[in-house]
Amino acid sequence: MAKITASVYTSHVPAIGAALDLGKSGEPYWQPVFKGYDYSKQWLKDNPPDVIFLVYNDHATAFSLEMIPTFAIGTAAEFTPADEGWGPRPVPKVIGHPELAAHIAQSVIQQDFDLTIVNRMDVDHGLTVPLSLMCGQPQAWPCPVIPFAVNVVQYPVPSGRRCFELGKAIRKAVESFDKPLNVQIWGTGGMSHQLQGPRAGLINKEFDNAFLDQLITDPAGLAGKPHIDYVREAGSEGIELVMWLIARGAMSDVAGGPAPKVAHRFYHVPASNTAVGHLILENQT
Q1: Which of 12, 97, 103, 193 is catalytic?
Q2: Would strands 78-79 and 71-74 be described as parallel, antiparallel, or unpaired?
Q3: How many domains does the chain divide into?
Q4: Is 264 a catalytic residue?
Q5: Is 97 a known active-site residue?
Q6: Which residue of 114, 143, 176, 230 has the fewest C-beta atoms within 10 A of its own C-beta?
Q7: Which of 97, 103, 125, 278 is catalytic?
């Protein structure tokens, strides 16, 4: 059977992608950010997945304000990097895994979560920047990726509890797939940041690190955090952190297994106008 072996959590700051694409990763401003992912790149080489299930939010490229699904799973064979206004990022196209994606959709919908099935869409920096941070600049991404888009742009957005429970459903779906696949689930977005209004540029180190602490040790409690706490403490875009709860809900300790191993943890401010958070958790047998 397929199994989820690890979860990866990371911010998906668009300026990080631009720094890589424009050859600025070695500049003094950017060096500390990318250094925090040196361990992660080697870890991914040492722990190669067969499939990555990547939870992210679209930034008005695949979806517009005319139609915004709460949860959308990409079931296509491939996904093209999106043009977000400056041309597509010079990164490889994303190869999907239609068979596993369709199975997850079937299983999760039968567990009473309403997913939107997307057979064609472009993927923006929310998905490609995490791949770049973890994989560098390869000619091709190391494995197929299933995009899973969550609406954290237009209210109402899903609650942390809903996202956490969805993660549990995804774990069950993966484990019922009748092929021996090694699957990693990635949660992306955040950490604290606000892009507009009088609090533009807000970064809250204390909140971010407390979030990481609780994500590791008490995810069920963290799932109960109300939206207003994210907005008040982490800024209007800090609500992206609920997507990390999908990945955390898919870990085996939530279903009664042993606590995960913290393989790596990293936090840095600033990167552009936001905080960068990163965490790797490994399931223990």
Answers
A1: 193
A2: unpaired
A3: 1
A4: no
A5: no
A6: 114
A7: 125
